[in-house]
Amino acid sequence: MKKLVLFLVVIILILVGIAVIWLATFDINQYKGEIANQFEKATGYPIEINSLGFSLKHGLSLQVNDFEVRSKPGQASPNPFLFQANKFFLKIDLTSLLKRQIEVKECILESPKLEFSSFVLTFESIHVPQISDLNIGLKTSGSNQNSFKELRIPKIQFVNGSFQYKDNSFRKLFALNADHINLELQNVSLASPVGFQGSADVFLGLMRQVNVEGTFSYPDQNLFFELSLDRAVKTTGTIQRIFSMPVYQLKITATDFDVASLYSAEQKNREYFSGLLSSESEVSTKGRTADEIKNSMLGKGWVRVKSGALKNRNLVRENLEKITAIPGLNQLFDSDLGAEISSLLKSPDTVFDALDAKFRIGGKQILIDSLSAIYSEYAANLWGSYLLEGPLDLKANLQLGTKLSDALTHKVKELNYLADASGHMVIPFVIQGKLPGVQVTPNVQNLVNQAVQNVAPELIDKALTSLLKSKQKKRAAAEAAAQQNDTQN
Q1: 3-state class (DSSP) for residue 280
Q2: For every residue of 283-338, which 3-state class applies, written as one string?
Q3: Which of 346 and 285 is assigned the larger pLDDT?
Q4: Which of 87, 168, 244, 291 pairs as cysteine with 110 (C-beta 3.0–4.6 A)?
């Protein structure tokens, strides 16, 4: 029995030795050109391979060193690209290799990198744990050259990636960064839709987790996806003709998203918004660059914010302080208006219970059809336009509530001239300039017109009353003189 075991061990060692000698003397590099030609025939893109070899790092594998795929020079491609991998391992079947065929069972790419003119995408590794129907036929003397069978891969895993996007078409450099990208493709094929799902940490002031899933069809160049941010903001959409002139159709919804969570601690030292945001919008556009996409945008939507505030800026106090032509207003905030009103005016923020807005998008311009912010002691209504990367141009009315109006007009009588028929003070103002740090100023012309409309009837009434009194006095004097004359006669 011991002799039998020893005999089998010797036979195995001899076979392993023969395989090692065969692998050591077999020059796989002679097939580089053939493998590259078959790859180009299957995908339409040429590849470059520095060298081929065998490796035992991941089991018996074909090791491809310095693998590179790029778009052809002069090829009609809007975004020339480059794909590289330091090492590319194809786990192969030994039996097929002895038949001078490479049957790939598993694939691992180390430090792969995808680079376009505007972005770079890198991964720690790309792992294809199972490959079916991928055979590379190696041409031998007197045999016909085989080609790829239909390539269908059950799963591809992209592990721990990073993404950097830059676009110089903005006035300021626009950049988007993402880390810890993990992505999985299912049923990969060039002939049918490919499913995908994944997650990443995206820098949006602070790092936020983004999850995505969808399908991609290579023949149609169509992409369908659903993307969620912190599970509160969801974007569903399609991208058609993704490799030529992309056409985007997007629907964006949000439910009770914490707006303040977008700001870093440093950003919260300046003015910013807080509140729970819900919204729905539909946007369509097309283009390869950010500028093309912005110029062709069309869309509409609505926004609602609950329990919100414009932090570190009190627009109510700011507007009242700027109406400096009214006597006594500069002492207004030193007066005793009651604890509730004083606290409201001295607060650093503009708080509101609810904000509702409807808007349209046309090219680079956002048209605000209506925007209202409501609080117990005031309400603001705004309308106008915002040009992307340009200035805001909004007109607005600030209407003060009964309690606040009464408290202010009690201290400064002249403020009565800014009250409407119901006794509420109404202050027209404009918002202009570029974000952040826009200028908010009272609309002086509207203020004057408003005051004149309110003051004129009062002045006319006083003039008529004075005139009537004067006539009555004259008539009474005439009647008294007449009576006196009658008495004397």
Answers
A1: strand
A2: EEEECCCHHHHHHCCEEEEEEEEEEEEEECCCHHHHHHHHCCCCCCHHHHHHCCCC
A3: 285
A4: 87
Sign of CA dihedral 410, 413, 418, 420: positive
pLDDT tens-digit series, residues 1-26: 444 344 344 444 444 554 555 555 55
DSSP 425: B
- Angstrom distance (rounded) from CA 298 to CA 274: 27
Cα distance between residue 332 and residue 368, in whole Å = 34
Look up residue 122 and give its two tokens: 């890198």
The mean pLDDT value for 373-385 works out to: 91
CA distance 64 to 55: 10
What stretches of 151-269 adopt beta strand conformation (E)?
152-167, 174-189, 194-204, 206-217, 222-229, 233-240, 247-258
Task: Assign 477 to helix, strand or coil.
Answer: helix
Q: Hey, what are 475's tokens? A: 């008539």
> What does the block give as tokens for 22?
């065969």
* 430-462 confidence digits (pLDDT tens): 888 887 678 888 776 665 565 555 554 554 344
Token output for 211: 């999850």
Both tokens assigned to 6: 């020893």
State the Cα torsion 47-50-52-55 to the nearest 10°: -110
* Helices assigned H by DSSP within 376-443: 402-411
- pLDDT for 298 equals 95
Q: Residue 217 corresponds to which tokens in the numbers above?
A: 């069809």
Q: Which two tokens stand for residue 146?
A: 């085989």
Residue 321, pLDDT > 70, answer yes
State the burial class of residue 204 (Cβ atoms within 10 Å of its Cβ: 0-12, 13-18, 19+).
Answer: middle
SS3 of 95, please? helix
Q: Strands 233-240, 222-229: parallel, antiparallel or unpaired by DSSP?
A: antiparallel
Better pLDDT: 362 or 448: 362
Q: Any residues with CB less than 8 A from the CB of 225 and at least 6 apart, and which?
A: 212, 213, 214, 235, 236, 237, 238, 239
pLDDT of 322: 76
Span 123-157, pLDDT tens digits: 888 888 776 555 555 444 444 444 444 567 788 88
pTM of the model: 0.69
Closest by CA position to 248, among listed 285, 291, 302: 285
Q: Give the per-residue pLDDT at 186.
A: 87
Name the DSSP letter for residue 151.
P
As a whole number of angstroms, the distance between CA 333 and CA 410 comes to 13
Helix (H, G, I), strand (E, B) or coil at 182: strand
Q: Is the pLDDT at 305 greater than 90, yes or no? A: yes
Could you give the CA distance from residue 30 to residue 138 in angstroms, rounded to a whole number? Answer: 10
3-state secondary structure of 342: helix
